[in-house]
Amino acid sequence: MSKKKDKRKVESEIPVKKIPGKRSYFDPKTIAAVLGVFILLFLIYSIMPQGSDQWNVRKDGVLSYTENRGRVDVNVLKTESSGNYTLETISFASKDYTVEGLLRIPSSDKKVPAIVILPGATVPKEGTQGLAEIFSSLGYASLGIEQRNRGSVNPDYDYNLFKEGKEPVEHKMVFDALRTVDVLKQDSRIDPKKIAIVGESNGGRFAIIATAIDPDIKGVIGISTSGYDMESETAGIRDETFIRFYRSIDPDTYLGLISPRKLVMMHSVNDSIIPIDLAGRTFKQAKEPKQFYSVTTGSHGFSNGMRVPLEDELRLMFQ
Question: Residues 91-139: pLDDT tens digits?
Fold first, then answer.
């Protein structure tokens, strides 16, 4: 018995080394401090502008921007009111450009559908108001913008930018259209699930591409517009960068990405700027649902013969 007692005594006398000042990582004060840091980081993140304006062009030439582009800071420069609508002159930043637009909101006690209007080359934002008045009479809001370069394009200049890894101007013009959609989405007077794009001439090209990129857009109506048929134009060319760029600016590249939303095209048989045959070729490549209207009124751009089908197609898109 005594031997066992002695053994226990020896074991109890083995010294235990203690590290002065060291405390457990699971100390309540440490846990509270860590949680405080996480909460602070979350608050900082939540108030920072979210979203991205990064661009990418796939190997097949399809341009893409993220669907989460972040909130837009909108400046209201002028407001005019009548009994039937409110007309606001607004501006907002889109990459390196300040977009100006005319936002027309019909008087309503509920959220209304809305339409982005992209004018043709050289046409200012004021040139969108003929369509805007029609849309307002139907109970739809609209935002017609002043496109950068007044809608004019320079593919050779843009191709050189693309070769250098810089964002082409035509890509930025598509992004401008997407940011215009974002302005409407965040407006409390607009139904964010009922936004479409109408584009004339060059504006119709950007409208088709923007609609293909953003699946939230309800549909697109192209007036007096067409693709470039770059597949034929680049046949026999081996330069992959060249082909990739020119596909990226061609609406024909994006036609398969619009469905199941609807593509509508309207064209005058008298159009000498973009012949109706070119529009028909583009339309043929599109998937269903789609509709083509050929009219005998006017020449290039919207004309009275397009009004009834335009109204009918918008009703279908927003129903």
Answer: 999 999 999 999 999 999 999 999 999 999 999 999 999 999 999 999 9
Rounded to whole angstroms, the Cα distance separating 74 from 92 reads 5
How many structural domains are present in the chain? 1
Q: Range of 96's domain?
A: 47-318
pLDDT in tens, 174-213: 999 999 999 999 999 999 999 999 999 999 999 999 999 9
CA 41 to mean position of chain CA atoms = 29
Q: Are 282 and 255 in contact (CB under 8 A)?
A: yes
Binning the chain into helix, strand and coil, the percentages to the nearest 5 are: 40, 25, 35
Is residue 197 situated within a structural domain? yes
Please report, for the domain that includes residue 257, its CATH number: 3.40.50.1820
- Classify residue 92: in a domain, yes or no: yes
Phi, psi (deg, nearest 5) at residue 65:
-130, 155
Q: Is 1 domain-assigned?
A: no
Single-letter residue type at 314: L
Distances (CA, A) of 91 to 9, 102, 103: 86, 9, 10
Find where tokens 């796939």 sit.
Answer: 58
Task: Specify if 13 maps to a domain.
Answer: no
Alpha carbon distances (Å) from 246 to 7, 16, 128, 156, 316:
89, 76, 28, 10, 33
Segment 219-251, tens digit of pLDDT: 999 999 999 999 888 888 999 999 999 999 999
**Closest to 264 in 3D by CA, of 220, 233, 218, 309:** 220
